[in-house]
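Run folding on both entries below.
>entry_1
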Amino acid sequence: MAPVVPDPAPVVEHAVQRSTSDETSQTASVDRRSTETPMFVPITQAPVVTPAPAPTAPAPALTQTPQLPVIEQLTTRPEDASVRYEVATRHLMDAVPDDIEPYFDLFLYVSKANKGPLGQRMFVFQRDADGKIVPYAEWRVSTGREQFEIHNDRRIRTVTPEGIFTLDPKRFYRKYWSKSWDNAPMHYAMFYDMLTNGNHSGIAIHAAVGQSKIDRLGRRDSAGCIRLAPRNAKELFYKVQNTTRGEVPVFALNDRQSTDRWGKAERTEAGSMVLQDGYRALLYVENFDGNQETVGPVVAYTH
């Protein structure tokens, strides 16, 4: 597997749509002791004696209050992007089988955890010109609500499946409406290339349409799909289509005609990997909040 080189500089969260509650909790984590202090002490002057002129009293030197870094403890919501990228990279690369990794150039890691430093985030990585896998973006998402619900008189589990998935090049739609969920809009839809009991999966990455759904990004809120902010979904949609076309492994089917969810490639009797034309983009979803691996001191600078 190609070595992973983390971005040498902290990566700024790319085009993240934040909910009001997210912004409130983030603001609360900043040490309020960093309130502004007057930058200069006023210059004073001694009175002049009349009629004889008197020397002016020396003015005190200009003083400036230094802007010191505020030390905060990483708890459930670290704001050090480089730490999050490092943990996401390690989990992604540990999960992807070595034999299929070279066939992909774009990697998507999604944590479907309900909270925590990685929870409800997508981390995007790409292979650079030297073959190294480097960070590209970090976006908030909404995954499945992870509960049983009644919809159209049917009991349905709104779950986002964990595992390793490819995207179906024949099922990319700039405009799409759900046939299963009352024509709910799913624009910039990128459906999984996955069969379940012989049927194509209805799970996709797509845009959150409507302000209420956009506001809930960062929380579990979908029926199982992975929602992104509209501008992020659009960017990913065209990035996959325009930059990742190529041959990719076909994932194996089990006895129930369901696609293997952990990256097991189909092979011929001679042992050769079966390839097909597709997108060299790989998605890994897991239920991991990141708390155990991201707790530690960092320096957060205030301005």
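>entry_2
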Amino acid sequence: MQRVALVQEAQPARRPPPGGARVQDNILARGERDFLDWLCVHMPRAVTPDKLTGFGACGASLVFASYAATRLHPLFFWLATLGVVIHWLGDSLDGSLARYRQIVRPRYGYFLDHSVDALCNLTIMAGAGLSAYIRLDVALFALLGYFMLCMYVFLYNHVSQRFQLSFLALGPTELRVGLIGLNCWMYFSGDLKIAIGGETFSPYDLVLCGAGIVFVCLFAVNVFKVARKLRREDASQSRPSGSGNRPLL
């Protein structure tokens, strides 16, 4: 009996599923949630969360191809906009449908969803950089800033069990709406050029560059704030019981 107990103790404990309380204070969160709940109720049984994830990835691929095709004709900006909507629908609805049908696979869903998100974001922004009016280096800089902010979200979720989906009252849905607005602006305004420091940029480049700077700043500010908070908490927990209020070196 003792031998069996030792074997059982040696087995690694199953980790709890990833993820935590969702912090979603973006402007469109309530309306989006109501719409997604309605879709879940009326969704055919043949539609599954995995199929929706693939549907969203197809939308990102359509965005890439459409952006590249804008070099042939600006009308492809509208097809890129359709791709953004398809990507939003698949990406936002897959997890919602799994929770509604109570078929959640926490670790698998978390791993697959965020892996596909990263690939789709790269596909979309690479496509934007290959479009008629946006520089590739600018598009990838904006993507880099967004990925840094995502890194903060995952790290913060790990140390606090709070999954922060919005910053400055904006979340992924608002960013997609902004991308649709940028598509409309590029279609109606066409090729605009601005010379800065011997380089040629478009106003659309400046918007994406500004977005990238905001992402990087949000990353830096939030990392500094959370690191200070965790440092104080860990110091108080590691303080010996008899140390009183003596300052730590």
